[in-house]
Here is the input.
Amino acid sequence: MKRLLVGAMALALGTLPGTAQSLDDLNIQIHGYAIQGFLYTTQNNIFYANSTDGSPEWTEAVLNLTAQPAPKLRVGVQARYSLLGNTGNAIVLDWAAADYKVNDRFGVRFGKVKTPWGLFNETQDIDPSYMWALLPQSIYDITTRNADLAHFGGVAYGTVKLSPAIGKVEYRGWGGEAVIPTNDGQFADLIAAGNGPLNPMTYVIYGGALHWITPITGLMIGASDSKANKASVALTGSASESFAPWNNLSYFGKYEKNKLMVAAEWNRQVSPGTLVLNGQSSSVSSDPRAWYAMATYKVTDKLTAGTYDSQVIDHQVSFGPDRYSKDWTISGRYDLSQYIYLKAEQHFIQGTALSFEDANNTVLLPTSRLTVLKVGVSF
Amino acid sequence: MKKLIYAFLIVATIAIFGQRAQAQVIVIANPGVKSADVSKSDLRDVFTGVATSLKDGSHVTPVLLKSGATHDEFLRTYVGKNDTTLRAGWRSLVFSGQASMPKSLDSETAVVDYVAHTAGAIGYLSKATPHEGVKVLGVR
Here is the structure.
């Protein structure tokens, strides 16, 4: 009931574009967006929802408040209500930060800040900003994204202009503490087994990213590497889970020309882990190597269509459907106005390495189709 | 043959007047902005939120028109995006904490007034719109 009320309020607010206010004197802006999704799958339930019956259990609402007291200084805060299947259903702090931009060459942001690895991580939870209903799950897994989205600490950023023949380089460097909340999707199977975490898992992270804006108009090539120190968490039932230091490496590129956009990314996250249950140790290590290639085309001013192929293979998992996930997707987005849009997407999925949790399925079958419909409003 | 000539003349006329229409959009800035001109790539960077200064170091803040032919023409000619794509890009910056949304004004008169009275403001309008109190920037 609570989620329905929050979702309805957010959608109602979003349909009143007049509520988007820029309070001139204080340089204050209020923005927000809300989405309501519908999931239908054949074979397996996905995202902790009863999707084989058709499920509306995907709601998000975001409220953003920023102020710019001086030309180089911005402060802001963003809160989010989210529900996906039986996870979430809570209001959380997306980010809260102060940003001081000395010039285009150097700026710094600190507080709870978005972590800018990969091509989409900074914006992977910002539905109005891209055409897909779901970003490629091989790298941007929606069920475990909380740990990746933001950290407490800072980001230094800037753009260095090189010669016209070479282009320019955008850089990001970050560091701080990441926190995985106790109700995160990463712990779903442990929670279902009665071994949920007693506290949030915290660990130190740091990393950097470079985006080379090449002299070829529209072409960007980049790389990022994010490292995490060792981490552990106590679990219910005198159990524990621990991870040795791990890292998250990405190479990516994007090309935009007129109505066409193509992009690709390769990612590897080596994560050596151990689970101790009833005095018995077992490996929870993973070594997923993932990639996707995508293309979108603006058919008209309001209609965009696209497709992607997204694949991941976990080299720590023995051979079988649980070792991989291959997802071929076709998608479309229609913008009814500046404020309201519709998305429709069809996924053809092979393998069960992602998104299909044991706790939410009696038997997992190796192939499944997913249909996503979504309506969104933003102001 | 006659039909071909007519068709050629029609296409040529559209092309010529199309180019003239492009030239009708001008870029304006607050008189405090030092630059006398701006490159097309700098203009694109400023209006997509990638940059907040011009080559001479002047800090600038873009201001948009909400809609209309001048707005569409400016985006097509200098930014290379349509309105939907431009605003989606700004939303990703706003909701990820990287920028504030640029002001969107209802009329070209309002743009002139805002740019004239706001330090660092940069906008665009039709050449035919009176624009006293602002500086016209050449586009390289």
Summary: The first helix of chain B runs from residue 2 to 23. Chain B has one domain: 25-139. Residues 14-23 of chain B have pLDDT under 50 and may be disordered. The domain at 25-139 of chain B is CATH 3.40.190.10 (D-Maltodextrin-Binding Protein; domain 2).
